[in-house]
Fold this protein.
Amino acid sequence: MDELEFTEAESNMNDLVSEYQQYQDATADEEGVLRALAPLPLTSISSLGIINVDYNFIEASFPAIEATKKPPCDPIKNSSR
């Protein structure tokens, strides 16, 4: 490799490091926003109860699954005033 190839490789590495740092910063910002908006602490999907701990099946009797069976509605028209 000549000097130009080393310089280009270093530049590419610096770009990757910079991009990774920006990604980490953006992820931290998004988590902060989500935590500020969430009424409860964010939890893993398995702790919500619709997935069995063995991950072999999904329980159809849980409220999250039942909610998917309801037809969508306009929240503005259906809000109480």
Summary: The longest helix spans residues 3-37. Residues 1-39 form one domain. The mean pLDDT is 68. The chain has two domains: 1-39, 40-71.
